[in-house]
Amino acid sequence: MLGELLMIAIALLLIYLGIYRKMEPLLLVPIGFGAMLVNIPSSDMAVNGILALFVEYLIKTEIVPLLIFLGIGALIDFGPLIANPMTFLLGAAAQIGVFVAFMLATLLGFNLAEAASIGIIGGADGPTTIYITTALSPHLLAATAVAAYSYMSLVPLIQPPVIKALTSREERRMRMKPLREVSKNEKIAFSVVVTLVTGSLVPSALPLVGMLMAGNLFRESGVTDRLAKGASEELLNIMTIILGLSIGSTMQASSFLRLDTLFVLTLGVVAFASATAGGVLLAKLMNLFLREKINPMIGAAGVSAVPMSARVVQRLAAEEDPDNFVLMHAMGPNIAGVIGTAVVAGAFIQLLGM
């Protein structure tokens, strides 16, 4: 009884943060409400309700995260990444957070599959976290999903101290030349090439990356506007509702109030901070060899919380120089981080699960 009351308090906190603090409201509100529903004393929703059906047939089968990736793909403009392919490296560098958390999790006694599910939180990508946890460690789904989405909403609080600690005021003021315009044909070719390369090298990542690129092809083809609109609006909204309520429904007191959950939440913070640091430090290293220097803050956007990480970088740049616009430059590593995290998740599944 006490555990259920504590979980209801946590659920109400998530709802409060979503509504009144506007912290990832589209997810924290339904997650909080779902958690409240299943922790009401004498409630049978966790066993027989529609939420249990959502979890069993839409989450555990990985349908929802894949369809969310389809919708995300229909929203994303890959132009900034294509215009500056070098930012792929920054998106890759940010994945260091995944491996830092992975190694720490193993030291804390988690097995490799559990450590991979925890580590992927550092990619700041909720659907990917759910996808890999469902495949490798379904018993950790509630903890990893809540950690991923909660910390995504805290990106504006977690990243700035790390960025400022690793950069000087002069570096944060650095300006970059405007990106070149990317053609429609380049964007179409990008979706096809990335899908083919991923399928050849990391087949287990293909479901995620393939859905992402399919959605983007709908967006960029110019002849499937209805599909792009349906994927990015109606479908994405419906899947987000199902996802939030379903994840909330897995937060039963008996399975959530455990020491493992505290470890997962702690490692999530470490993962985010180290991912931010990895991107910034690689950008600083690259500047030692580049003729046209890059603002090292854009490396922090390799954390794939799109577009929050890029907006954080822009805000910090504007604080030092109100006329400095680096948002589109930051979107390059931000988008690369989405692809990078999906590939790392696929590699984990390929090595540890299937």
Features:
354 residues; mainly alpha; OadB_MmdB; translocase; Sodium ion-translocating decarboxylase subunit beta; cell membrane; transmembrane helix
Q: What is the domain tally?
A: 1
Largest sheet: none
Distance between the termini: 39 Å
Mean pLDDT over the residues: 92
Q: What is the number of strand segments? A: 0
Low-confidence parts, pLDDT < 50 over ≥5 residues? none
Helix content: over 70%
The helix tally amounts to 20
Q: Assess the beta-strand content as a share of residues.
A: under 5%
> Which structural class do you get from the secondary structure elements?
mainly alpha
Supply Rg: 20 Å
Outline: globular
The H-and-E topology, N to C, reads as HHHHHHHHHHHHHHHHHHHH
Protein name: Sodium ion-translocating decarboxylase subunit beta
Transmembrane segments: 5-21, 27-51, 63-82, 88-110, 188-214, 235-256, 262-282, 334-353
Organism: Geoglobus acetivorans
Membrane topology: Multi-pass membrane protein
Architecture overview:
It is a multi-pass membrane protein. By secondary structure, this protein is mostly helical. The protein has one domain. The protein contains 20 helices and no strands. The protein has helices at 2-20, 25-39, 45-48, 50-59, 63-75, 79-83, 87-93, 96-107, 112-119, 126-136, 141-153, 155-166, 169-172, 184-201, 206-220, 225-249, 253-256, 259-287, 308-320, 327-352. It starts with a helix and ends with a helix.
